[in-house]
Design brief:
CATH topology: MetI-like fold
Number of domains: 1
Distance between the termini: 29 Å
Number of helices: 15
Structural class: mainly alpha
CATH class: Mainly Alpha
CATH architecture: Orthogonal Bundle
Oligomer: single chain
Order of helices and strands: HHHHHHHHHHHHHHH
CATH superfamily: MetI-like
Largest sheet: none
Length: 292
């Protein structure tokens, strides 16, 4: 069917507006990347740098030569990998148990999990709980409070309920226990859901900030986002005094260039991981949804 002039005009306006929004969103990221690769002498001689004439890796060399940044990346990397694996195990196992009709007290557990979605106890009760459990100033304080999500549990539960019961019955006839059914049947058929939720968990753990401010006092255990905040707000608040002194002194690499390079490095792991999980993303987002 031939489209009318009004439809074509409306489509053209939509494309133009979306292109403008895309450029407005992309330009700040592009500016950060360009500044991070700008030669220090060129950056100090110009008020603004759009396209550097001389490229340099000085900022990245400086960042990776500092112990504080490397340790912070290690903490965030540990949270993103180990925390995501634990979260997926807990979320999928809990969802599988709640999806079984024979579970005694099922309604009680569902209501208890639902209440955690509707009512948030707040910052002070969470702090007192972490403190009473002896988790203060440990990596577990950044993992256990965010170990699972009630919303993801309900989505996974609905997904497991859609799987035919005959698969479980056939596995039981072959001698599988409940754990065997979960590991050999349920997990393989839920790869797309696990990939999607795993990406969400990984991003959340990698971007851990507020928990790091509340529960962590040791410099070597601070996650990357906390260190970046210290770098971006004030050099005098740096956890590592040597870095603060270098940022405040007359050094060869300007502080602004170092900050831009730090932002690029902190964003790079998620940007690299996302394309590999993209094929599971759309399918995983439909997990537990209502289909008509």
């Amino acid at each position: 069917m031939n489209r009318s002039f009004g439809v074509k005009f409306f489509t053209a306006i939509n494309y133009a507006v979306l292109t403008i929004f895309a450029l407005v969103t992309l330009l700040p990221f592009l500016y950060v990347i360009l500044v991070s690769f700008t030669d220090p002498t060129e950056y100090m001689s110009k008020s603004i740098v759009l396209i550097p004439q001389t490229w340099s890796l000085s900022a990245y060399e400086f960042i990776f030569s500092t112990n504080a940044f490397v340790k912070a990346m290690g903490v965030s990397g540990f949270l993103a990998v180990f925390g995501t694996v634990l979260s997926l195990i807990v979320t999928s196992a809990l969802a599988y148990v709640l999806s079984r009709k024979r579970l005694k007290g099922k309604k009680f557990f569902l209501v208890a999990i639902l209440l955690t979605m509707l009512f948030n106890p707040g910052m002070i009760p969470n702090y007192l709980l972490v403190d009473s459990l002896g988790l203060m100033d440990t990596v577990w304080a950044l993992i256990l409070p965010a170990l699972t999500s009630a919303w993801y549990v309900f989505l996974m539960k609905n997904f497991y309920q859609e799987i035919p019961d005959e698969l479980e019955e056939a596995a039981k006839i072959d001698g599988c226990s409940d754990i065997g059914v979960f590991i050999r049947i349920m997990l393989p058929v839920s790869v797309s859901a696990l990939a999607a939720f795993g990406l969400f968990y990984a991003v959340a753990y990698w971007n851990t900030y507020f928990s790091g401010v509340l529960y962590i006092n040791t410099d070597t255990l601070r996650p990357l986002q906390v260190l970046l905040q210290m770098m971006l707000v004030s050099a005098s608040q740096m956890a590592d005094p040597s870095i603060a002194a270098m940022l405040e002194s007359e050094q060869t690499v300007p502080p602004q260039v170092i900050k831009m390079a730090a932002v690029v490095i902190s964003s790079l792991p998620i940007v690299i991981v996302y394309p590999f999980l993209q094929k599971y993303f759309v399918k995983g987002m439909m997990v537990g949804s209502v289909k008509g």
